[in-house]
Amino acid sequence: MGLDFTVIPQYMDIILWGALWTILITLGAAVVSFVGGIVLAVIALYGPTPVRLPFRIFSFLFMGTPLLLQLFLIYFGLVQIGIDVPAFMAGIIGLGLHFAVYNSELFQTGILAVDTGQIEAARTLGLSRMQALRKVVVPQAIRDVIPPIGNNMIALLKDSALVSVIGVSELTLSAQRAIGSTYRPFEFYVLVAVIYYIINIFMEAAQRRIERRVQASR
Amino acid sequence: MTDQKPFVDIRHAKKSYGTLEVLKDINLQVQKGQIVAIIGPSGSGKSTLLRAINDLDPLTGGEVWLEDKQINKKLPHRQYEAHINQVRQEIGMVFQHFNLFPHLRVRENVTLAPKMLKGITDAEADKLAEEQLDKVGMLERIDHYPSQLSGGQKQRVAIARALAMNPKVMLFDEATSALDPELVEEVNLVMKKLAEEHMTMIIVTHEMSFAESVCDRVLFMDQGVVVEEGPPEVIFRNPTSDRTKEFLRKHLAGQHP
Ligand SMILES: Nc1ncnc2c1ncn2[C@@H]1O[C@H](COP(=O)(O)OP(=O)(O)OP(=O)(O)O)[C@@H](O)[C@H]1O
Ligand SMILES: [Mg+2]
Prior knowledge:
The complex is a heterodimer.
Chain A: H1 8-46, H2 49-64, H3 67-80, H4 87-113, H5 116-124, H6 129-144, H7 146-159, H8 171-182, H9 185-214
Helix pairs in contact in A: 1-2, 1-4, 1-7, 1-8, 1-9, 2-4, 3-4, 4-6, 4-7, 5-6, 7-9, 8-9
Chain B: E1 8-17, E2 20-30, E3 35-39, H1 46-53, E4 61-66, E5 69-70, H2 77-88, E6 91-94, H3 106-118, H4 122-135, H5 151-163, E7 169-173, H6 181-196, E8 200-204, H7 208-214, E9 217-222, E10 225-230, H8 232-237, H9 242-253
Parallel strand pairs in B: 3-8, 3-9, 6-7, 7-8
Antiparallel strand pairs in B: 1-2, 1-4, 4-5, 9-10
The structure holds adenosine-5'-triphosphate and magnesium ion (MG).
The site of magnesium ion has 3 residues of chain B, from helix 1.
């Protein structure tokens, strides 16, 4: 049997809903990974020792084990101890924390690269260390690591396909469902690949825009 | 003058890095409204002394007082942090490399600390920024980023930023050393203006003619000690110590006429 793309329009609404879920999960997880990454970075660098150690272990676990396993653990595992996380939330939390750990590494490098004169100037004005970090150091660190963070966010988009395994009807799972009734894997996988690519293009455009906007603040 | 209670009082200041003694029993009393210049060769401890005043480089011995408050008093960590943050609000500092916040516009550079620490409203903050920037001649650049300014302009904004906290004393650590020669004067003029307003100032500088024209007193430091101190006309015209003479001779020889 040859290729037949005419089956697509009939399933387009399922696919577009899937795309919407993919975008929502990616955005949600991006926010978690961004904020979480900053918090983890500040704790790793400046937290009191008794707090630092558990966070180190946490980071190590999230970096050293497969994301797939983490998603299973959050979705299927936590129920056993009475924490019932809806699949969509489990996806956001799993992806978000996983990438928070990666982002944290970048933020730490960024924070350490900010000139010490910046902290000195802030402290001299009377700001506490936390205030200086929050208002002076971290914003500059964020500005400086936008490109690699952007790369992580694109990796996050791609890895969001993994949440299909816990039953979130995002793009990949929607495609599989359409394929299940049409037996047209090539057509739908190509379609979905194109949609991922389009989302990707928008994300890269957003990143470039942000970078242009912070250009003057260097 | 000496029977008056000093405004800034540094007593028996000592500082070592490991076995290297950087400050060896330094005493410095500054009266309210007085302007003191600290001069001396590179590595003599000028910055270390200045930075000990607001505890950026804590002393290993001795005391620093501002009016009736000991700045470097022994306190448990948390209490000390609260204390030092309070004290630092009263001490303005200007750095050789400006250390403006590059991610903030000129306006926010000036208002960041007053807004966070003094709880002023946005309207008050705007007024404060305009006042202080006008004072240093930088009002037109209020909405620029530091990267869009020249070195001299940056330093003037840095001075406005320090002044916005309404400090009791201003510390300058070679405020013009990083500037192109043609930009030095605009910063010096701002400092002169502060002098006319009787701001208490301690100025580390390599510019002897500037020191001579604005300062009430000059300290010559070498190898962690105050070798000689006195009014500028004495230190610059009739120094008694050979080390001072030697330093001035070398220094003036290397300077622009
Ligand atoms: N963090 C540090 N660790 C070790 N030694 C230091 C440190 N900071 C300063 N020193 C040393 O302390 C001495 C005094 O330094 P300081 O910066 O106070 O000199 P200075 O008079 O300001 O010199 P300059 O005119 O070059 O600015 C120098 O020998 C310097 O190498
Ligand atoms: Mg110095």
